[in-house]
Amino acid sequence: MASDDVPDLYPSEPRPVRLMNTIWADKAGTHDALATVGQLDRWVRQCGIPTVGPLGEADLLRARELRDALRRLAATVANDERPAAVDAGLSVDRALATLNGFTAPSAPELRRDGEGGFHRDWRFSVDGFGRELAALALEAGELLSERPEVRIGACYGPGCVLYYHRSHPRRGWCSAGCGNRGRVARHYRRHAND
């Protein structure tokens, strides 16, 4: 993979899940797809996130900070204890404070729609990429607070460290491939002592 390549893992997932999944694994180990500003720029374009001007190191650090907080909170709601999935040094309380810090520059605002009605929107006190991270944090808050049978799930496929939105209550894997690998591994464990 070239230095600024970013795997576009499951583009149908909500943006907060796509951010969480910039930590991914393969047979070679766990990887961080937000290691450079170029990778952040590539990920932002993959997700259709508008930017004003070039992204910088500060933007990369903020995106990684939000990503790590979201992974810790997702692990909490999914009862995920995979050691490779989250930063063990990041507490749930600190992750929650980080997420709330990202949403702080936003306030709900009622606006008119084009059909004579109203809709809730958000007013932001930050611009540029900071505004986009605040919007992403608001989306994450919605996902993390959904009913337990719907919200974020942790993929327990062998070696996987991804999360997914449980669009169906019985969904148990990030992909069909992980589901197949998980079933094969379970089969071998059951029959290993035969």
Description:
- There is one protein chain.
- With 194 residues, the protein is of the alpha+beta class.
- It has a single domain, classed as Jann2411-like fold (Orthogonal Bundle), CATH 1.10.3300.10.
- The protein is built from six helices and six strands.
- The chain has helices at residues 15-20, 37-46, 57-77, 92-103, 128-144, 176-191; strands at residues 23-26, 29-32, 106-112, 118-124, 152-154, 163-165.
- A two-stranded antiparallel ribbon has the order 1-2. A two-stranded antiparallel sheet has the order 3-4.
- Helix 3 crosses helix 4, helix 3 (57-77) runs parallel beside helix 5 (128-144) and helix 4 (92-103) packs across helix 5.
- The radius of gyration is 18 Å and the shape is globular.
- The model has no long low-confidence stretch (mean pLDDT 85).
Task: Name some characteristics of this structure.
single chain; 194 residues; alpha+beta; Jann2411-like fold; two-stranded antiparallel sheet; 6 strands
List the SSEs and their pairings.
Elements: H1 15-20, E1 23-26, E2 29-32, H2 37-46, H3 57-77, H4 92-103, E3 106-112, E4 118-124, H5 128-144, E5 152-154, E6 163-165, H6 176-191
